[in-house]
Amino acid sequence: MSARIDALPEGITTLADYEPLARACLNPTTWHYLHDGSGNGLSLAANRQAFETVPLIPRPLVDVRQGNTRLTLFGQTLLHPILLAPIAYQRLFHPDGECATSMAAAAQGGAMVISSLASQSIEEIVEAGCQIGVAPWFQLYWQGERERTLRLARRAEVAGCPALMLTVDAPFKQSTLVLPEGVAAENLEQPLMADQVPSGQSRVFQGWMAQAPTWDDLAWLRERIRLPLIVKGVLHPDDAERVVGLGCDGLVVSNHGGRVLDGAPASLLALPPILSRVAGRVPVLLDSGIRSGCDVFKALSLGASAVLLGRPYIWGLACAGAFGVAHVIRLMRDELEATMALCGCAELSQIVQTRNL
Amino acid sequence: MSARIDALPEGITTLADYEPLARACLNPTTWHYLHDGSGNGLSLAANRQAFETVPLIPRPLVDVRQGNTRLTLFGQTLLHPILLAPIAYQRLFHPDGECATSMAAAAQGGAMVISSLASQSIEEIVEAGCQIGVAPWFQLYWQGERERTLRLARRAEVAGCPALMLTVDAPFKQSTLVLPEGVAAENLEQPLMADQVPSGQSRVFQGWMAQAPTWDDLAWLRERIRLPLIVKGVLHPDDAERVVGLGCDGLVVSNHGGRVLDGAPASLLALPPILSRVAGRVPVLLDSGIRSGCDVFKALSLGASAVLLGRPYIWGLACAGAFGVAHVIRLMRDELEATMALCGCAELSQIVQTRNL
Amino acid sequence: MSARIDALPEGITTLADYEPLARACLNPTTWHYLHDGSGNGLSLAANRQAFETVPLIPRPLVDVRQGNTRLTLFGQTLLHPILLAPIAYQRLFHPDGECATSMAAAAQGGAMVISSLASQSIEEIVEAGCQIGVAPWFQLYWQGERERTLRLARRAEVAGCPALMLTVDAPFKQSTLVLPEGVAAENLEQPLMADQVPSGQSRVFQGWMAQAPTWDDLAWLRERIRLPLIVKGVLHPDDAERVVGLGCDGLVVSNHGGRVLDGAPASLLALPPILSRVAGRVPVLLDSGIRSGCDVFKALSLGASAVLLGRPYIWGLACAGAFGVAHVIRLMRDELEATMALCGCAELSQIVQTRNL
Amino acid sequence: MSARIDALPEGITTLADYEPLARACLNPTTWHYLHDGSGNGLSLAANRQAFETVPLIPRPLVDVRQGNTRLTLFGQTLLHPILLAPIAYQRLFHPDGECATSMAAAAQGGAMVISSLASQSIEEIVEAGCQIGVAPWFQLYWQGERERTLRLARRAEVAGCPALMLTVDAPFKQSTLVLPEGVAAENLEQPLMADQVPSGQSRVFQGWMAQAPTWDDLAWLRERIRLPLIVKGVLHPDDAERVVGLGCDGLVVSNHGGRVLDGAPASLLALPPILSRVAGRVPVLLDSGIRSGCDVFKALSLGASAVLLGRPYIWGLACAGAFGVAHVIRLMRDELEATMALCGCAELSQIVQTRNL
Ligand SMILES: Cc1cc2nc3c(=O)[nH]c(=O)nc-3n(C[C@H](O)[C@H](O)[C@H](O)COP(=O)(O)O)c2cc1C
Ligand SMILES: Cc1cc2nc3c(=O)[nH]c(=O)nc-3n(C[C@H](O)[C@H](O)[C@H](O)COP(=O)(O)O)c2cc1C
Ligand SMILES: Cc1cc2nc3c(=O)[nH]c(=O)nc-3n(C[C@H](O)[C@H](O)[C@H](O)COP(=O)(O)O)c2cc1C
Ligand SMILES: Cc1cc2nc3c(=O)[nH]c(=O)nc-3n(C[C@H](O)[C@H](O)[C@H](O)COP(=O)(O)O)c2cc1C
């Protein structure tokens, strides 16, 4: 790990204060890679818009002196329901990269999810978290074929990751980012799968999609994975049903932070129909657009079991490495507690009941 | 009282004209303390937005030559339904502080509500109003424990306040304002209740909320208070029901001017379901977002008995002390009268009937 | 009439092109007097917004070669349904004042409505129009008492006005405009009614409203007026019913261009319920927010018999006197014809049928 | 054809990137002629707004490795459903004019529709496309009388156009564009029909509309045309019914890109009721507002058989002639393929089923 000592920036009182500081720390290309949505940014904006329409009703005078934010998820005990979403190439944002994130998440009693495109080795990142007590989860991208994908999953399992999250909503790369020298997907087998397409064929259908996973591949993988397997990137209730039917342990309702299909609905809006269909059979998590503890409360009030936080923790990473990430988590959790207190909830499980107005 | 002579600013024709003048009078920190909402300002904006959606239908040709704006509230006769909301530390805004507000309210035939965090003594403030004829009410914050709270309530009663308003929606301080030398909460017992929390415990749940009132505390207090007791900060009909059930004399539907839980609904939108539940058993007042006499009319048209005006009277205070506050009230009342006249209402009680379109 | 020769401004293709030119011709005070709405401009904006929500469905391939825009209204034959609304003190905007407007309206085969607050004598204005062939109507403000009001109405009748329009929605003056030397309400009896109010009484209720007309006054007036009597400023169906019940000949659904009660609904939105109540017994006119021939079509498609155009013709007056007013009317009428043609209507009476989608 | 060699502009990744480049290539008058809508631009904005409200639901894990975008339309096989809309006077935008467009469309396996107001001869334009393999269609404007119109249609047929599209929604010219020297409607018979109107008559009704086609004219034309005849500019279901009833082969739901009747509904919103009425009897195409491959997907998801792309291909033409047009089509098609892949569609015919959420 780097010997660089980071100090927390001054004058930060909310998460939003980090955004301009992070922007100032990063070169414009990196900032846009982090921040932008795809296309015209419709889904990116829809994510935020959706949270603004969920009202919170204060419920004063409730006794919440025993309040806490603990939960158990896929067998792990967490101090709060805010996971750190898988984000690729974190050494783009800070030399300490994913290890800093792992330490910070563990220090705050929660878990990060390591991206398949992590810029440090899975083993190092797991180690950074385990020193403090909580192991990170691993996010799996399909590796173009079954065995290669299974090898990557197994490596994460051996390294000590307690859960696997298969991301299915981004079957091809859209970003045009050119990685700087020294930043790479450290855990992928070389050479990468070729995506050359014979002329006259479609780069999309016969190229990229020939390397994307199918429902059959998911079934195949499920049978070979002992760890809890969570599918990330579900927005349609029929797909949620099928994921559960294949024996997966959970799912993440997500539009990938508005970065893939522009026009995809806000994941918060997609959540309720999926929850009705899943009907409690597995935990349903949510990401895309979470920017405050109030937003965490809102997602849980609609029925999510936990949330994944994306870009905002990278703001903290960019500004102040592990300290910054830990601070972002702490701010979120404080806001979540305050919102619970004001809405009369002493336990996470009470939050969903506030919807019955 | 200060010997400073304030002149009314020139060219003011509506309340809104005071806002930029007040901003210019105050240092930015004080202005932001006064003006800002919490979080992203969703509730602050929702308050204004809500008023814009209530239409007014002009009803010409009605004979309103006997028109007036009088009402009786909790036994007091008031010349108009515009109370001045409890606002802390008024010496931040003008050296004459709460005494100026008290005089102005009385001079205009209405009442102010003294904050628990007033920067002058309750007795002085009451005196300033009584000289002119109307005594201010007192707003009670829970003082961390029962007896301390009761002592504060009793002091206000003895000083001559005719009604008590217990604010329940702000169980902990969110503002980061540092009070300048010479401005303090003059009426609170020293030392303040500690809010230290053992490490590993939550500053929110085990800290602040351990000092917040509960329904039991409210019941306890109600039994010990002879004055009319009004609960401020209710937004959920179930809570309104419970407040009435405990024998309180009234309630204020309020989101605290958008200063506490960002995402709380506009109080104007929360009003109708609460009114249906309360069904006339006690008067229901409204605050948060009132900026004109039209807004007062709108609140009354939905069924409020009276309103509390917040930030705008502080604009007047900042610009011109007692004269400014009196002028703000006069402008509001003139607009209310004009709106009544244009809508064919000669009495406040007719306003609610204009809703039956 | 003035000897000043006005030339039409260059490069005008739509009504909207006149607005910035007019602004440039007028001093800011006069411009704001003309342009602004009351309060926060809610009703002013609502007027425009309302027109934007009425869709037009093009109906190609209809044979409209016999098309025209003629109508008969209160016994008068007009070449088009665009009346010029009563606007006070037109010498503020151009030295030729109301006479220019009267000539232009007549030249275009339509009628203006002379304001009670005209800055030239009724007789001169009527004369200016009659030379060309069409006499202007007269708008009556209540003159504080019955006989004085009747005298003014009689004067207009004698001068040759074929219809009277009693404006009831503006019982008191809200503008703070100070009239420049030489511009005055030429047709009002001196001295004006006093609006002094004994101290302790309300300037609104006991002052202004004591001089406003009531339903009884309207009944009294109706009995004494032989000309068609139209009531301007109705927004509530109950009031429309009562106006018709008193034997008036028509009414104007109007919010006075958003200049009186801020928060009053857009008149276009108030139109349909009024039309259902009136059920064809008298013609219903509309004003407030008309800015193009499309808007005229929209108003007629909802059921209005004709419209009154307000501010836009004053833009023409300010820029180029009678020529400008005539040009504005011509542009509006061309747009109305084009809209009719595109929507497959050859007669005004077919427009209302386009609503049955 | 011009010897000018155009290079593709650098750094273009989406269609939208072309817009500012095109603006920079064109003089402001030409740009405004291309870009502006009529009136206040309500319909222009509504077109875009409508697409933003159609959500796309990603459907991961579907096997789309056999995916393609082929379709058969009016007997022609096309590689994708993106036709190039008829746009007048293309030599305004690039010296190679319509011939460049024709080549590019053919090279990309699709068809352009030649405007009646093309600035090159029909024969040349057809030839430019046929060299590569696909013949352009021809758009017919009514030529003021039957025989003249039929002569123009026959000329296009003889030249080799496989389909005719009669535009009925623009019976008169609204643009004030003055054509520069050397750019003209090359294919119209001289002299043009006169549009002089005797004084006292209406330029709209007795002038322009006397030269516009009627339902009878359409019936007359239909009987005399062997080629597939498609009617462009239908927004009302009754008109769609009548078009089908007369034996036409298809229709284009269009508001002419917001260029004719300002206030006409977005064509995307007009599509569903028309599709229900047509009930599959003929293909229904859509244009107005298509700006990306996502938009094509959305139109097809609502039931359109294909779309016409308007202004955006002119951006490509202005920047880089035939290469630019081909690039624009390629970008659109790539986006369409990506959207299909992400939404789990391997064939165009599956797109409409994604609506059954
Ligand atoms: C820069 C960046 C890189 C990302 N990389 C991955 C990734 O490698 N794997 C993955 O499953 N999701 C990835 N995501 C998506 C996130 O996991 C998450 O779904 C999204 O950021 C949530 O939205 P939010 O940023 O609005 O909170 C990435 C997101 C960002 C912003
Ligand atoms: C600067 C400031 C201080 C306040 N202090 C108190 C207080 O001490 N006690 C209380 O009950 N409410 C307090 N409030 C809330 C007001 O009583 C009132 O609910 C709110 O200002 C109404 O909204 P408005 O400002 O939009 O009119 C305060 C509000 C402001 C703006
Ligand atoms: C400057 C001005 C003066 C007006 N004066 C009168 C008046 O004297 N009498 C009257 O009945 N209405 C008066 N009106 C209202 C107009 O008759 C009409 O209702 C209004 O202008 C219509 O709205 P528009 O301006 O949006 O078209 C006035 C309006 C303006 C803008
Ligand atoms: C500059 C321009 C010229 C046009 N000329 C014609 C024309 O000659 N014939 C026709 O049927 N439509 C014409 N149109 C309309 C287009 O065919 C098409 O309906 C419209 O551009 C689609 O909307 P979009 O530009 O938003 O894609 C023209 C459009 C533009 C922008």
From TrEMBL, chains A, B, C, D:
Residues 7-357 form the FMN hydroxy acid dehydrogenase domain. This is 4-hydroxymandelate oxidase. Glyoxylate binds at residues 33, 141, 167, 256, 259. The keyword ATP-binding does not apply. Belongs to the FMN-dependent alpha-hydroxy acid dehydrogenase family. Keywords: Flavoprotein, FMN, Oxidoreductase. Pfam families: FMN_dh. The active site is at 256 (proton acceptor). The keyword Oxidoreductase applies. Transmembrane segments: none annotated. One of its GO terms (molecular function) is oxidoreductase activity, acting on CH-OH group of donors. Its cofactor is FMN. FMN binds at residues 86-88, 115, 139, 232, 254, 287-291, 310-311. Gene3D superfamilies: Aldolase class I. InterPro entries: Aldolase_TIM (IPR013785), Alpha-hydoxy_acid_DH_FMN (IPR012133), FMN-dep_DH (IPR000262), FMN_HAD (IPR037396).
